[in-house]
């Protein structure tokens, strides 16, 4: 492992060198519908990077874009060189864990490998960014994740004011960083311990079994109360870094059409409608139940880890202030009143 420490000016030089070889995406301020948002975009200007705010949307938008043309008729203009490898700079621990979830589903599941995702993901390296403190809606630590550093990223940045520590954990990248000044490993250790201390007190206490017991929770009478306010807008799923439902549409004329893979949402009322007209999730309580159960029961039953990484974006974005933490607390209360919670794996 290599540890480097550079100042902002040196990072800018490093960025300019790296962009000769890699496409670089990072969180930047964008104006959308007259609202300023921080989102990941491919950039060529280091000064645009926003370091001190959790991005409003996750790097899912780069790895699994909202609309992706698929097939041979790939006509859409790309804003980066598709032949080159890419770096995504400044990815926080929750989002790194979320990409691990997407990798499990789209690449590591032997039942089906999504070649489109695999191809794009294979050329992307995550460059982590250690979180110095918690936002008011973050709760990754309550779910067992480490906000200071995730093991899943081969490169990691620890920013302290205008200084940057860079941990190069994968030898493959050492040549890109070898000429930078060395950082003191012990001092970085101290910084990491100091940061871990700030997260010592958990964001909220949660005592639920993982996976949630499937049959028991499916039959629970709590979902109507939880979902009462839900509008079915799907914003929570679009901003969620782990939600990955999609559908296909074709655009254009015969012979000139392009097939797109578009994000879908299990919170939409027509999402699970059958061609026969039957809809097994014909009410919002059933849809809300599916969202929570997918993240805390079905995903952990089928893969390692959770389908939620506690990034808090669904809490910040929900137009009617539905808070997934409250849903989890209601689940905890329900299971404890039923005589103690048992994991769905038992
Ligand atoms: S963002 Fe809120 S209102 Fe919209 S679908 Fe999600 S939970 Fe329902
Ligand atoms: S469910 Fe909410 S808190 Fe959990 S990962 Fe998705 S957006 Fe983040």
- Tertiary shape: globular
Ligands, deduplicated: iron/sulfur cluster
Return the structural class.
alpha/beta
Order of helices and strands: EHEEHEEHHEEEHHHHHEEHHH
Radius of gyration: 21 Å
Strand numbers in spatial order across the main sheet: 1-8-7-6-5-2-3
Largest sheet: 7 strands, mixed
Number of beta strands: 10
The helix content is: 25-40%
Number of helices: 12
What is the overall pLDDT average?
93
Low-confidence stretches: none
Q: Any idea how many domains?
A: 2
**Binned strand content:** 15-25%
The N- to C-terminal Cα distance equals: 40 Å
Account of the protein in words:
With 346 residues, this protein is an alpha/beta fold. It has two domains: 2-198, no CATH class; 214-337, no CATH class. Helix content is 32%, strand content 19%. It contains twelve helices and ten strands. It has helices spanning 8-21, 60-63, 93-108, 115-121, 174-177, 185-198, 214-218, 223-227, 235-239, 284-302, 313-317, 324-337, and strands spanning 2-7, 22-32, 35-42, 67-70, 85-92, 124-129, 155-160, 163-168, 246-251, 258-263. The strands form two sheets. A seven-stranded mixed sheet has the order 1-8-7-6-5-2-3, sandwiched between helices. A three-stranded antiparallel sheet has the order 4-10-9, with no helix packed on it. The model has no long low-confidence stretch (mean pLDDT 93).
Note the topology:
Blueprint lengths: L1 E6 H14 E11 L2 E8 L17 H4 L3 E4 L14 E8 H16 L6 H7 L2 E6 L25 E6 L2 E6 L5 H4 L7 H14 L15 H5 L4 H5 L7 H5 L6 E6 L6 E6 L20 H19 L10 H5 L6 H14 L9
Parallel strand pairs: 2-5, 5-6, 6-7
Antiparallel strand pairs: 1-8, 2-3, 4-10, 7-8, 9-10
The protein binds iron/sulfur cluster (2 copies).
